Amino acid sequence: MTHAVERLAAWAVDSRSRPLEAEVLHHAKRAVIDWYAAYYPGSVAAPATLLEKAFSLQDPRTRALIMGSAAHTAEVDDIFRDGIYHPGAPTISAALAIARSLELSGMDFLRAVVVGYEISTRIGAAMGRAHYKHWHNTGTIGCFGAAAAVSETLGLSREKFSHALATVTTFSAGLQQAFRMDSMSKPLHAGRAAEAGVTAALAAREGVTGSLDVMQGFGKAMGDDPDWAAAFSTLGRDWHITRMTFKNHACCGHTFAAIDGALALKARMKLAAGDIERVRVGTYRAGVEVAHYEAPRTPAEGRFSLKYVVATALTHGSVRLAAFESSRLENPQTKALMGKISVAIDPELDATFPRQRAARVAIEARGGRREEFLQPTRKGDPDMPLSDREVEEKYLELAAPVIGAEKAKDLLARLWKLESLPQVP
Asked: Is the Cβ–Cβ distance between 393 and 414 less than 8 Å?
């Protein structure tokens, strides 16, 4: 009997003899650029700055932990929509920690990233809504992305690759309850997943074995017992990395359709924020339950307040990092508008989650004007993607304040030709 982890390992190892398609390679570079965009603002904030004080940076496991946490802190990292999962923070962080340690080429690193994405996104999609009810997929599913990517950087055999995946399955953790109140736990989930993947793959390289049938128990214990054979049937044909969501707002992705819809409706009605008397938002259940803060007091709470991000979009025109500075959180106009916003679960839109992230927004304005707008997807989703130029602009906006404009531009140029670099930057 071939177990799920063995099938995944066989695909990864067999794929080494085939070059990556140009489209896959291009999208892998987009993912890496977007990872750097998310990493830099998180690298100068807690918990990354605190982890650097707590641990030695010499160990690649620690580097993966810190980079993974940093890349998930500012809430601007990528999403695989169908898996309700941020693959970049754990997968790229783990791959980069080992690639730098081994001085691997840019192409070897990119292949590892692709392998990590393709394996983990399928596990995330198979586990589905049943898993997301209580678990934080970036922590749980991210372990597989990290372990697969590192196994690829190490060139593990089928057998050892299988054992790395089997071992990391038992490390899978991360509860949504950990970010139902203000804490640093959420970004730590991504960092811990990256660290777990490095640990499992390095251990497997030396002969540590795992239970090869473990995915059967994982699916039953933490999901609704998915069909793993069906989940992996499109490996090597349908490349998930080519349809990633890149965030266009610096907050919880469940709020994006509501933000986009509110901005579109405001523009269509040609309103100023002061003209708005009432806003009604209908969206899917996760958007209501995860982005639940009614009166956010901290940046973390603000990023998970659907009412706040919609109000700040309507008052300031965007939801970037500045939206979560203390002066903006206390902005009187934004706070007044929040009191005019109501949020509810729309059964029709909830039925299409997670494959579709939509919101229905209605605005009532002075003079009795009322209009409604259905935002069927989010700006940045695969059916409304950010262009390469927009990905670049996002990266420069977020990286330049941390490392300087010239250094950011130089790194960007190198990342676009990463496959030709003898060593990862």
From this structure: no
